[in-house]
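FAQ: What does a multi-protein file look like?

Like this. Sequence, then tokens, then the next protein.
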Amino acid sequence: PFDENKPLFVPVFGFQNGEFSGENVELTQEVFNLPLRRDILYRAYHWRSRAGKFTTHITRTKATTSGSGKKPMKQKGNGKARWGNLRAPGRKKGGKAHGAKPTILAYPLNRKIRLLAYKTFFSAKLAEGKLRIVDSEELEEPKTRLVAEAFKNKDKRISYLIITAMKPDANFLAAVKNIPNVSTCTPMNMNICDMLETDKIVLTKQGLEDLV
């Protein structure tokens, strides 16, 4: 989306007032200037949505269904089809042929694929104009109104994800809890599912350094 031969500079805005701080930061081309890979994003989303999930349903099979194992009738000379077991799936009260069983839905995904998913996500958000860099999330006191002022003129239907530093400000974490459609995370606990379901990304300067 952007010229790879030129430095990629973006402006830094104030978190509370939303005004330009007079500072620009240079973004890494390998993270913020990659083409969109929908296939990679889908693979990462599917992997993350199944992490830690499993099924517990189980059905009785031919081996576990109660009943005798005796052959009901002799093999030949009856003029009927062969019948070897009372618990066969085709018989009344027989076991299930291919029934449900406990299954682990989680599966591993290559680390390079996961990293590429995050990179192409940030590149797409930057190209769409839905990624903003702010100076800092630090607040003087843990008041919700201080954070709400930054989003008072925004569309209430738009969701925001604020990516802070590895050690976010305690006042900010206490203040942002009560604001709807605004969530926060650190570069360490980013969730690709939550990120894809968010409209806009707000990234702090320190969060950017920790991310890259």
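And here is the next protein:
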Amino acid sequence: PNIEVCKQILRTVTSLCASQKNVVHIPTPDPGARLVIVGDLHGHFEDLMHVLREHGEPQMGPGGVKYLFNGDFVDRGAWGPEVLLVIYCLKLRCPDAVFLNRGNHEDEQQNLKPDNGFVHSHCTRAFGSDAMRMYALCRRSFREIALCHVIANEIVVIHGGLPLDPNIKLEDINEIDRRRSVPMHHCSLLGYPRYQTV
């Protein structure tokens, strides 16, 4: 992909997401419209294309379709940069029809693991000698992605499931500083703690 275009996409979506709170409210879909929740693409580009072919491109209004991408856009699958850029382009094109939740793989600790491959393999393949500069922009964008969406004031969608502590309220989630690495004591929002029994 063209590096300058990619930089602009990453910077623009970062600014857009930065204006949102940790908890984003999605209104009830219009009559005849759909909301599709997509989880854990993990860099599998063909899976993303299948979802879009099956449900259509995002659009507002009656008969339209909205998407909530519920985290883990990258790592594992080799096409993470492309999956991320397509999702970001959809968000920029239809900001009120595309929503993004941060998952535990939208975090530097996960991205740097050799098994996951996003930084040292996938970004290098996609961006060549600009890989580390482009990853820095990706990482910056990850820190601005919302943590939770509430659909029609009834359904809560959080990557990794609801908090294990039943006393956690949406206001508590809004107070989390999402603009840093995922702290272990908050990981019940983004994935279960190690050795957790459910």
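Q: Is there any per-entry metadata?
A: Some entries carry free-text notes. For the entry above: Helices lie at 3-18, 45-55, 80-93, 108-111, 118-127, 131-142, 170-174, 187-190.
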